[in-house]
Amino acid sequence: MMLAASTCAANLAKKLAATGITDTEVLSAVTNTPRELFLDGALTHKAYENTALPIGQGQTISQPYIVAKMTELLKQSAPKTVLEIGTGSGYQAAILAQLFPTLCTIERIKSLQIQARQRLKRLDLHNVSFKYGDGWKGWSNRAPFDGIMVTAAAETIPQALLEQLSDGGVLIIPVGEANQQLLKITRQGDKYHSQKVEAVKFVPLVNGDLA
Ligand code: SAH
């Protein structure tokens, strides 16, 4: 299977455009990515709804709007090397891999990681490196990253991720527990500038042991 536009995915992209996503390359990536491939058979009829859905192990594939929004925010700084924390289904990774030259992605649940790797291979996306590990620690021997996207909510901002940003690099991260805020943090030398984007709802970023 290759990446190809489908009517359903094109309709989803139209919905996202109507909710404020303006970057045409991000919208094209949504149009070209078969979201049903990232879901369990029983849920494929919901694949092009603008909602988060369960992917097993208590985890979720993020809402398409938030996938597109976070990607758009990251793309503003034109990163070459990107790190994603929380591979999950692999859908967000598939979008990122179409827009940026090099993607590294970390997942702490092995079974999800194995499935995600197979899906990206099937879509002929080969610029992605997968790591089974704890995303709180980042990926030090692949750092620095021009962009880091965390797709689970952290109680606090992981220090390792700040350190692994290149100068001018951008970290997109949901922070908080019951009330979460999406933050865009930009590194300038040893200084970090934080900007609130909007309220969000993500599964928690687990700190510590692997599943
Ligand atoms: N980007 C994913 C969203 C998955 S939900 C997608 O497009 O489907 C968040 C994911 O983060 C879950 O799969 C969860 O297992 C993973 N996760 C949570 N804490 C983590 C950690 N400390 N390190 C790596 N992955 C983590």
From TrEMBL:
Keywords, comma-separated and alphabetical: Cytoplasm, Methyltransferase, S-adenosyl-L-methionine, Transferase
Q: Please tell me which top-level EC class this enzyme sits in.
A: transferase
Q: What is its EC number?
A: 2.1.1.77
**Which reaction is the catalytic activity of this chain?**
[protein]-L-isoaspartate + S-adenosyl-L-methionine = [protein]-L-isoaspartate alpha-methyl ester + S-adenosyl-L-homocysteine
Task: Give the residues annotated as active site.
Answer: S62
Q: Which InterPro entries does the record match to this protein?
A: PCMT, SAM-dependent_MTases_sf
- State any single GO MF term: protein-L-isoaspartate (D-aspartate) O-methyltransferase activity
UniProt key word Cell division: no
Its BP terms in the Gene Ontology are: methylation
Compartments annotated for it: namely: Cytoplasm
Q: Which Pfam families does this UniProt record tie to the protein?
A: PCMT
Work out whether the entry's keyword set contains Cytoplasm: yes
What Gene3D superfamilies is this protein classified in?
Vaccinia Virus protein VP39
Task: Note the superkingdom of the native organism.
Answer: Bacteria
Matches recorded under NCBIfam families: pimt, PRK00312.1
Please give the PANTHER family that the UniProt record associates with this protein: PROTEIN-L-ISOASPARTATE O-METHYLTRANSFERASE (PTHR11579), PROTEIN-L-ISOASPARTATE(D-ASPARTATE) O-METHYLTRANSFERASE (PTHR11579:SF0)
The family annotation for this protein states: Belongs to the methyltransferase superfamily. L-isoaspartyl/D-aspartyl protein methyltransferase family.
State the function annotated in the UniProt record: Catalyzes the methyl esterification of L-isoaspartyl residues in peptides and proteins that result from spontaneous decomposition of normal L-aspartyl and L-asparaginyl residues. It plays a role in the repair and/or degradation of damaged proteins.
Q: What is this protein called?
A: Protein-L-isoaspartate O-methyltransferase
Q: Which organism's genome codes for this protein?
A: Shewanella intestini
